[in-house]
Amino acid sequence: MATLRFATARDVAEAFPTLAEDMLAEPGEHEPLAFLRALADGETPEDAISFCAYVLPRRDAVWWACRSVRALASPGAAVEDVALTAAEAWVRAPSEASRIEAMQAGQAASSAQATTWAAFAAAWSGGNLSVGEHAGAPAPAHLTAKAVRACLLIALARISATERRDRLRACIEGGIRLAAVDA
């Protein structure tokens, strides 16, 4: 059985200092899954989105974002676009070629769309920040989590206030299930 890469929530924050920018709660010595569940039940469950995006391995985090965007869509709405398809393709076959395809799909899409950020999450999972003859700097480790967080918060913002809490909770539960597999 695999284990989470972190023993405590504080370990996650130490590994990813940008987590402090993305959530209000202060990570302590709690086991990560217990902390994630507490965040989900707390006053700012959006903190659970942020924490989960960082605690999950990158591939799992991108998969969680893709699945959540589909689940958060209005019933009957088709969630098919190039960016989401590219992100899902990277999850299924995480190669450099599929990472670059996700980057190109994200760059061609609107930053106001949740699916664009799913593509960027895959694109920033490794490799360089740009492609071409003069490839840029390596992608910092925290960018996948930042993009997953943006993806899910944009998707959640489009849900009516009456449904938002329950749908947010379902999204977090999906992340917890993925994290538990890695625990």
Q: What's the topology here?
A:
Blueprint: H1 9-15, H2 19-22, H3 32-41, H4 46-55, H5 58-72, H6 82-92, H7 96-108, H8 114-123, H9 143-157, H10 161-182
Helix pairs in contact: 3-4, 3-10, 4-9, 4-10, 5-6, 5-8, 5-9, 5-10, 6-7, 6-8, 7-8, 8-9
Describe this protein's structure.
With about 180 residues, this protein is mainly α. It has one domain (about 10-180). Helix content is about 65%, strand content about 0%. The chain has helices at about 10-15, 20, 30-40, 45-55, 60-70, 80-90, 95-110, 115-125, 145-155, 160-180. The protein is globular. The relative contact order is 0.18.
State the total count of DSSP E strands: 0
- End-to-end distance: 8 Å
Number of domains: 1
| Beta-strand share of residues | under 5%
Number of helices: 10
* Biggest sheet layout: none
Proportion of residues in helical segments: 55-70%
